[in-house]
Amino acid sequence: MPVLIVGSIALDTVKTPAEEHADLLGGSASYASVAASFFTSAQLVGIVGSDFPQAHVDYFQSRQIDLEGLQKVAGESFRWSGEYMTDMNVRETRSVALNVFEHFTPHLPESYRQTPFVLLANIAPALQSHVLDQMARPRFVVVDTMDLWITIAKPDLLALLARVDLLILNDSEAKLLTDETNLIRAAEAIRGYGPQYVAIKKGEHGCLLFGDPAKQEFFSCPAFPLANLHDPTGAGDCFAGGLIGQLAREDTPEITFEQLKRAVVSGSVVASFNVEAFSLERLRTLEPKEVEDRYLEFGRISRF
Ligand code: AMP
Fold it and tell me: How far apart are CA 241 and CA 249, in angstroms?
């Protein structure tokens, strides 16, 4: 089964304590669709400007990513620049230039409207809702968000949450969204807004998956132990893309909590590879066998 992914497609400039690189392929939908492509075929919905390098388009195509939903318009592509501090968990946004993204309205080709698995990767929640407006009710909808939207577009985000199955966000965002300081209570509050499931990422400390507490639906996924982190950009997007890709690959009529656990591990596997190099460089050389091996390794490090 294919997955539909909407989000940003960007040219990023990223600075770490060791290196700086400009005009890298980035954006939430770029990372997520490449991550998903290790499990299934992806349909990409987004916008780029006339400056967007053909090499990046060719790369998406080499990953069998369907680009019928990619709009290419006159003007400059979305640009984002970020800097990581000595502690790479800390990042500052240096600049954002919306450019063609400012007037983006996602438009779904007819052939995408029945796609059963949907990832609304990080963009404004009103645009994420607009994608759902154009679809028959998908089987499973995953939404990713960020602190910016919780701060400036909370009503839009809450309206969207009533229509989705799984919300992915990090620990500080979960607290910001719910005004709770305890993650268990934050997850319960979020489930009250609509999503049956909540995945709370804790950076280098892994991820918690919450479902129905009455059924003991709780899973703690470790983070893969990595000594050399080169560029954390896009880890969250790869997590989301790997997760939805794995769900679509299994393609069952009902999604069970056991399946979601496997999907969370698959997302963590791709994210852990992605941070080993800048931009999407590590995923360019990643082999399916490496993905399988690290999936098993996750099992080994968390079993006792
Ligand atoms: P992450 O590291 O998971 O937060 O994702 C980083 C990616 O998000 C970068 O490649 C950026 O281009 C993209 N990005 C940053 N800010 C935004 C935004 N406001 N909306 C959509 N995408 C963004």
Answer: 12
